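Following the same procedure, the fold was encoded as tokens, giving this record:
***
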Amino acid sequence: MILKLAWRNIWRNRRRTFITAASILFAVLFASLMESLQKGAWDNMINNVVNFYYGYAQVHQKGYWEDRSIDQAFILHDSLEALSGEVDQLESIVPRLESFALASTGNKTFGVMVVGIDPERENTMTGLAGRVEAGQYLKADAAPAAMIATGVAERLNLGVGDTILLISQGFHGANAAGKYPVVGMVDFPSPDLNKQLLYLPLSEAQYFYGAYDRVTSLALQLDNNDDIPPVQRQLTAALDTSTYEIMNWRAMMPELLEAKALDSAGNVIVYIILYLIIAFGIFGTILMMTKEREYEFGVLTAIGMRRGKLGLVIWLETIMLGLLGAMAGILLAIPVVWYFNVHPIRFSGEYASMLEQYGFEPIFPALFDWTIFATQALLVFLVTALLALYPIWKIRRMQP
């Protein structure tokens, strides 16, 4: 009976109900879309970096990640290779030898990250062969050759079949120099990766740097982010932690997580403004409703209706009004967010260049996550529940 009475009461003034619900609807729609785009853009960026290069976790020699020196390369023992069969959730281990070098062609010189890889295992984890834009993928048993990212190719004006010269400092100060034909070019969604990576077969990279049988990291192939803790625990028990360190992608890229947290904090300010607008809109409705119905409240209390029950009716009216607008906003937001999830926003021109300078791919896919919509409904419920205390306070002080 009380619910039915509250529902009928909010429709006594239809215009006011529609205006208030509409303000809540558009605020919820905008907040849901903004949060979906923001989270989707960051998840896309993190996935690009994690899935196409770093992996979910890596094994290094102790202290390697601080300066990433090739002098801290370690011998790839058979016991390390066997870990993929001994550790649950660990599908495979991908060995790499990484170091910087100066790449040159003609009069142009550019710093690159040289990555020695096992082509077959690297492709299993990162799908690198599928990112070849021109030429062909590396082959472990073929003649020495290099595969470069498209950003490096643009900087040095290189194409498939051209020769690239490399010079660097090898293992323990050894001279490192070589020239390689470019057999393929790969394109990464991450602008940072696209501007610096050059791949060599692992055996050739070990010869180039004089780091025979050594690697600088073992990338761990896992199914998903949830497998990281159990795999880390098992590897910590299996490896000598005074020699090796096991780092997940969060530990390897703290600056990325800090930038995400900072961006999210900026969005919180916008959410506060949005919900302040909602709160004032709902409170304005409550004030008008309370003032208009003072005589009605007085009569009801005079004929014996308990103030607590009357307050409950008014509280339910306010909650229903807030949730009506929130549910309408969520129902409208679901197809909009779904559309931008399937058809991401793609930027071009100067804005795209600016995003790439900050390491963002100029694509913003919306994240379709039911918790985003549930959070908006919860926030509206809390705001309306708090504001609905005002008419209850007025009713308790009213003289019949």
User: Anything to note?
Assistant: The mean pLDDT is 83. The radius of gyration is 30 Å. Residues 14-54 form the longest helix (41 residues).
